Backbone:
């Protein structure tokens, strides 16, 4: 009996000391990047009602913090201009945590499915050279471990590491190439948080509150069939991999997803924009959200890929979003194009122009449908971002026009004053136009800087 009592008391003592220790979420570690010139929240756990100190070396200040009776604490600190390395020291009664080599710069969340998750180890173009030259110590990488949860969690598994030939190999290739361009142009530290999961639909990344407010999205979600790579349970990845990060200050998000929503393609714009809006609400920040339009691929459904691409185009109506077109970076028999360099570069150029105010004279978008006018039996289609509009083929193909009954017919197309003039013998009174709308349609219409026109169907 005495032995059992002694063991129980020992366990209680160990537990008491464990609870008394200052504990940080995993997103705070050595080698991390904090968002520059921002109000950044530091937070974690300690003994209930414990007072301890936090020291930040960039301003040489020590601040006292006290937990509540819930054992949680928070402290907002102002970060300086980009730079480092710095230290943050948490000192309590039982333990001390010293975070070293902390950089201040730009932090980007990188999410989506397999094309975002895809790493150099999964095979990319020019793989060996890219790995050998991936020595960028001011780029820091954090990979969120794959986790699902029924309810929003408070922490994730992972740790920050400097970008090196060893660490880059297992990280998102698109995110790496995005950061490499940013780091070159901005010459400041870049922090990347990779929380992608292959084969995931948008529903699993969307909080439950969205489905509660929009039951029609629940009905659309029922069309998503289970797969062997990831759960299709709505909100499960948001709860396990996004919710724990919403207190951590970020500069923006890049996203590469959509292939797994071809089963309910018609609802993608609404779902996607509600997801983005919900993330911003949780972060309390209307941060930029830049995403990749999915590439042509031989899906089972003839038009599913085209519908998603058009839905993604329409999602750009949401403020502070932008889309990188990639219909020229594809092979219709492989859903994972190996050219991740140009995808990351196009996202980076959008960020540099839209968010950082650089590349003012550089076009970063492919041609986007604007409107059409009628001229007898012809339609004249106007595009934005269309300087130097040209076709890579001998003929401009993949345009179709519709009649009053909504039936579609191939159209002859010609360029005139950087607009596309369409006609069809079968349609005397055309009422609508679409372009590259089949899942496997690889468009040939480009602007002067070599960016492809987006799939579209007119309103």
Residues:
């Amino acid at each position: 009996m005495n032995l059992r009592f002694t063991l129980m008391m020992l366990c209680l003592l160990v537990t008491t000391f464990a609870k008394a220790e200052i504990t940080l979420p995993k997103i705070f570690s050595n080698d991390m990047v904090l968002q520059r010139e921002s109000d950044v929240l530091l937070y974690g756990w300690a003994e209930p009602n414990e007072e301890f100190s936090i020291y930040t070396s960039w301003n040489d200040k020590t601040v006292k913090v006290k937990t509540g009776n819930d054992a949680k604490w928070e402290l907002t600190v102002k970060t300086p201009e980009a730079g480092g390395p710095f230290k943050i020291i948490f000192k309590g009664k039982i333990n001390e945590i010293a975070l070293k080599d902390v950089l201040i710069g730009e932090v980007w969340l990188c999410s989506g499915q397999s094309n975002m998750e895809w790493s150099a180890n999964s095979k990319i173009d020019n793989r060996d050279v890219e790995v050998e030259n991936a020595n960028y110590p001011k780029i820091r990488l954090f990979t969120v471990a794959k986790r699902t949860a029924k309810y929003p969690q408070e922490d994730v598994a992972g740790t920050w590491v400097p970008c090196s030939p060893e660490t880059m190999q297992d990280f998102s290739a698109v995110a790496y190439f995005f950061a490499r361009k940013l780091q070159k142009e901005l010459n400041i530290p870049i922090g990347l948080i990779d929380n992608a999961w292959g084969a995931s639909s948008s529903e699993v990344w969307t909080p439950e509150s969205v489905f509660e407010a929009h039951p029609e999205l629940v009905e659309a979600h029922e069309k998503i069939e289970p797969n062997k790579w990831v759960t299709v349970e709505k909100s499960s990845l948001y709860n396990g991999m996004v919710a724990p990060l919403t207190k951590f200050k970020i500069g923006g998000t890049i996203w590469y997803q959509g292939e797994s929503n071809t089963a309910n393609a018609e609802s993608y714009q609404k779902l996607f924009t509600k997801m983005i809006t919900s993330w911003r609400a949780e972060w309390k920040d209307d941060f930029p959200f830049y995403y990749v339009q999915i590439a042509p691929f031989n899906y089972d459904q003839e038009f599913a890929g085209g519908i998603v691409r058009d839905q993604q185009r329409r999602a750009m109506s949401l403020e502070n979003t932008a889309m990188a077109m990639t219909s020229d970076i594809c092979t219709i028999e492989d859903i994972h194009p190996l050219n991740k360099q140009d995808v990351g570069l196009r996202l980076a150029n959008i960020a540099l122009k839209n968010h950082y105010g650089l590349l003012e004279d550089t076009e970063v978008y492919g041609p986007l449908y604007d409107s059409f006018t009628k001229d007898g039996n012809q339609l004249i289609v106007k595009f934005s971002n269309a300087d130097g509009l040209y076709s890579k083929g001998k003929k401009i193909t993949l345009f179709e026009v519709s009649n009053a009954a909504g039936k579609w017919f191939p159209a002859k197309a010609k360029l005139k004053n950087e607009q596309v003039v369409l006609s069809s013998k079968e349609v005397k009174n055309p009422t609508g136009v679409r372009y590259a709308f089949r899942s496997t349609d690889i468009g040939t219409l480009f602007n002067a800087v070599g960016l492809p026109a987006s799939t579209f169907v007119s309103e």
Notes: The domain at 105-354 is CATH 3.40.50.1110 (Rossmann fold).
